[in-house]
């Protein structure tokens, strides 16, 4: 699978993408801030299941978590998103994240899955995450990524 890159309108440095590594699918969020990178990683994860542009924001998911480092914090955040997609059958249009050190306060906006609006995409029952990585690169751009097995 080739990397699919989606740029947020008017913000070429902020985007999500799918990639493969050793035949495993991954999601990557890139942002001008650590918060944006986390938001974009969650949006890329959601896009594995449903096109975010087909989702309306009728429901809100609130998540708060804390961890010992940014890698583990990203893993906890993405697990919470997967949990909402599996347990509450939510599909997401967008996310908002606020970080206070290693404390994350996140919101996901979307709606319940419906075949008539979202198609019969991947059913979500859970996910395992490996090779979780959060790093700051040249120009201060942040990258948050993980390999995902839905």
Automatic annotation (TrEMBL):
GO terms for molecular function: metal ion binding. One of its GO terms (biological process) is tRNA processing. The keyword Ligase does not apply. The keyword tRNA processing applies. Pfam families: Archease (PF01951). Residues 25-149 form the Archease domain. Keywords: Calcium, Metal-binding, tRNA processing. InterPro entries: Archease_dom (IPR023572), Archease_dom_sf (IPR036820). SUPFAM superfamilies: MTH1598-like (SSF69819). Belongs to the archease family. This is Archease.
């Amino acid at each position: 699978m080739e990397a699919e890159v989606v740029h947020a309108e008017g913000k070429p440095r902020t985007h999500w993408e799918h990639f493969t590594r050793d035949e495993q699918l991954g999601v990557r969020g890139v942002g001008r801030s650590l918060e944006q990178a986390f938001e974009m990683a969650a949006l890329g994860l959601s896009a594995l299941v449903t096109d975010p542009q087909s989702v309306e924001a009728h429901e809100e998911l609130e998540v708060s978590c804390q961890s010992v480092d940014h890698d583990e914090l990203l893993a906890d955040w993405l697990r919470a998103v997967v949990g909402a997609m599996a347990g509450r059958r939510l599909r997401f249009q967008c996310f908002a994240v606020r970080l206070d050190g290693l404390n994350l306060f996140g919101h996901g906006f979307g709606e319940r899955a419906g075949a008539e609006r979202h198609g019969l995409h991947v059913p979500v029952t859970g996910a395992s995450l490996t090779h979780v990585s959060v790093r700051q690169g040249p120009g201060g751009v942040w990258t948050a990524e993980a390999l995902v097995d839905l």
